[in-house]
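Figure 3 (text version): structure tokens given as input.
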């Protein structure tokens, strides 16, 4: 997995390897944190949806987010208004509310406990309604 902001999707790993590469990156980063004496209680994992990834890789990461639960750490997802949404349904950033909410609902279902969003009210409302529905199962 490309670890630098200067990377582009052209240098990103192929879609079928993205989960393995991200898990290896997390393991390596956690080893560095352990060496530095950083408590696991101070660490949150962020798969970096949209950063150095193709749209397909971002969708794969969201679909398989639960695979990162093995690290036993909170997961953060920030899919709000990201470009991968327009690969599914053409939309400019300010028209991606529905796609952002869908991505965040999937992320929470996959284990995300922290969501970064531009549209807080709408996202919280959607997550609360989804949780209320789930509670009725």
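Below: residues designed for each position.
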């Amino acid at each position: 997995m490309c670890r630098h902001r200067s990377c582009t999707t052209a240098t990103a790993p192929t879609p079928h390897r993205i989960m393995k590469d991200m898990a290896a990156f997390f393991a390596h980063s956690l080893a560095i944190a352990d060496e530095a004496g950083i408590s696991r209680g101070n660490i949150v994992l962020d798969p970096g949806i949209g950063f150095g990834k193709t749209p397909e890789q971002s969708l794969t990461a969201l679909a398989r987010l639960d695979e990162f639960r093995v690290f036993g750490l909170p997961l953060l997802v920030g899919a709000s208004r990201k470009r991968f949404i327009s690969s599914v349904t053409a939309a400019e950033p300010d028209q991606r509310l529905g796609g952002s909410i869908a991505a965040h609902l999937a992320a929470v279902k996959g284990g995300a406990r922290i969501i970064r969003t531009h549209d807080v009210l709408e996202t919280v409302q959607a997550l609360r309604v989804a949780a209320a529905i789930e509670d009725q199962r």
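The two ends are 38 Å apart (CA to CA).
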